[in-house]
Write a structure and sequence with these properties.
This protein is of the alpha/beta class. 33% of the residues lie in helices and 26% in strands. α3 links the parallel β3 and β4.
C-alpha cells in the first residue's frame, strides 16, 4: 500500500488575518520534510484548512497521522481536539499558540509556541514520529490497522468500533 508510506499531515490554521506567525505552516512543513528525509522514511502529504468542520471532513476522507492545530484564544478548539482524539485515537495532535503557557484543557500530544523555535520542533518531531507506523500490526495472516480501525484476514476485511480498536490495541 503506497498510502501507508506517506505521512498525512493536516494543518488547521487560525481564522485571523496575516500575522508574524503567517510563515509558521511553511516553516513547520520544511522542518517536518527535513526530519522525514533524514530518517529515510515516508513522504509527506500536507493539507491546510482554516476551519474545524473542513478539517473533520478531510480527516474522514484521508486519515492524517498528524494534525497541527493553531489556537486563536485560550481554550479555543478544545472541543475539536477532543473530537479528533475520540474518532481517531492514533492520530497525533500538536497545538501551536502564541499565548503564554501551555494551553489548558486541550487534549494534545505536543505543544509548540509561536514564533517557532527550530530546536523545539526538532525535539518534538523526534518524539512524535518515532515509529509513526505503530498503528499497523501483523499477527500471522491477520493485519490490524488501528488508525482506520480495520482488520484484514484471508476471509475479508472488517471494520471495528472505536471501543473494539482500543481493546485490541491494549492486547
Amino acid at each position: 500500500m503506497a498510502d501507508e508510506n506517506r505521512l498525512q499531515v493536516l494543518y488547521v490554521a487560525s481564522r485571523r488575518g496575516p500575522t508574524d506567525a503567517a510563515s509558521a505552516p511553511e516553516m513547520l512543513r520544511t522542518h517536518l520534510n527535513n526530519h522525514i528525509a533524514g530518517n529515510g522514511e515516508a513522504q509527506l502529504e500536507w493539507t491546510v484548512v482554516t476551519n474545524q468542520k473542513g478539517a473533520l471532513v478531510l480527516a474522514r476522507r484521508k486519515l492524517p497521522r498528524l494534525i497541527l492545530v493553531e489556537l486563536d484564544a485560550p481554550g479555543g478548539r478544545a472541543a475539536f481536539c477532543a473530537t479528533v482524539r475520540q474518532r481517531w485515537p492514533t492520530t497525533k495532535i500538536v497545538v501551536l499558540s502564541a499565548l503564554h503557557g501551555r494551553a489548558k484543557g486541550i487534549d494534545c500530544d505536543g505543544f509548540l509556541h509561536l514564533p517557532l523555535d527550530s530546536m523545539e520542533m526538532v525535539a518534538l518531531w523526534g518524539a512524535m514520529l518515532n515509529g509513526y507506523q505503530a498503528h499497523l500490526q501483523r499477527r500471522g495472516p491477520i493485519d490490524l490497522n488501528l488508525a482506520t480501525r480495520t482488520v484484514s484476514t484471508p476471509k475479508g476485511q472488517y471494520h471495528m468500533t472505536p471501543k473494539q480498536a482500543s481493546l485490541l490495541d491494549l492486547l
